[in-house]
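pinned: reference chain
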Amino acid sequence: METLPAPDTTWEVRVRWGNRRLEASVLDGRGRRTLALGDQKHDDVQLGHPGHVRFEWTEAGLVVRFTAGVMGALRQRGDAPVSLSDLVQKGVVKEDGTSWVLRLQGADELALTVGTLSIEARRGRGRFVRLPFDVRALVLVVLAVLAVALVIASVSQPPELPKLQWLKR
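pinned: its structure tokens
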């Protein structure tokens, strides 16, 4: 089965507790579009902490809404990570009522911490497309199988006794 590469608008969200992976979701236009993390009834992942994080997929990127109690850093275009509080001062993170809003685009990578949980959001990595069929490799494999079959066939035959014609004289 051939796999297709992930579209450019796909985002990955991973939730970890130490070494354990609690959630790994792909947000895109073809399937799941939102992921909510918190302790409310309708949230997808329970955090066990008063903080709340919601990821929403859009054509332009990923919209992240979070409340107080969420800490983290954003790495934009591979630059050094910048803390959320610095991003609020720069105007990248905007306040919206009781929560803050951050928009991820391009090669942005977000690392959040809520209590003891770590949350990562980044562009979805594409799956590798299968390589084209290689006839030379197939011929080599067929020849190797034939050689092994020939050896097995010659060894599995009962041994032939030598002709003792010289004893009959």
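why pinned: The two ends are 70 Å apart (CA to CA). The chain has a mean pLDDT of 82.
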